[in-house]
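Long-time lurker, first post. I've been practising inverse folding by hand and with some scripts of my own, and I keep getting stuck on stretches where the structure tokens seem ambiguous. Below is the full token string for one chain I'm working on. Before anyone asks, I'm not after the true native sequence, just a reasonable design that respects the backbone. If someone could post their per-position residues I'd love to compare against what I wrote down in my notebook.
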């Protein structure tokens, strides 16, 4: 179910991005003009659904990694980051999201790394609070205070 939701979100996000960045004063654009030039409109439409949709499915489905007890928080976050970064960079490269220069790709990758640091940090703080509370309750129980 997560993968289906991710697929739909990925495809919708692609159309939103095309509308946001490719539309002109002449009207709303739903098909990426650069891709349409390369592949033609029907194939571009299919690619805009399938490729970002697949990326979205992978990105959302891999959140299950955080439910695994085999991974600590850092390992789960790093594993998720590598999978998501690989899927997103591959998709972005194919779809032309980063432009022709390497600068866009590097900037995007750095932004992802910073974002994942904050994700890890927030999960770490949340887990630490829960662990501290559980330890406090166990200590009270052990001391007979509760």
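-- Answer (accepted) --
I ran through it position by position. Result:
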């Amino acid at each position: 179910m997560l993968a289906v939701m991710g697929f739909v979100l990925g495809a919708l996000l692609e159309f939103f991005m095309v509308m946001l960045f490719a539309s002109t004063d002449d009207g709303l654009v739903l098909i990426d003009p650069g891709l349409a030039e390369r592949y033609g409109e029907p194939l571009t439409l299919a690619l805009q659904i399938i490729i970002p949709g697949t990326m979205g499915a992978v990105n959302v489905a891999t959140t299950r990694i955080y439910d695994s007890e085999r991974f600590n928080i850092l390992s789960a976050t790093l594993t998720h980051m590598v999978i998501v970064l690989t899927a997103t960079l591959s998709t972005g490269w194919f779809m032309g999201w980063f432009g022709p220069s390497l600068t866009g790709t590097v900037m995007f990758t750095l932004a992802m790394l910073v974002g994942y640091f904050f994700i890890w940090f927030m999960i770490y703080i949340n887990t630490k609070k829960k662990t501290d509370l559980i330890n406090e309750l166990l200590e009270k129980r052990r001391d007979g205070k509760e």
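A couple of notes from the structure itself: The chain has one domain: 2-142. Residues 98 and 106 are 9 Å apart (CA to CA). Happy to go over any region you disagree with.
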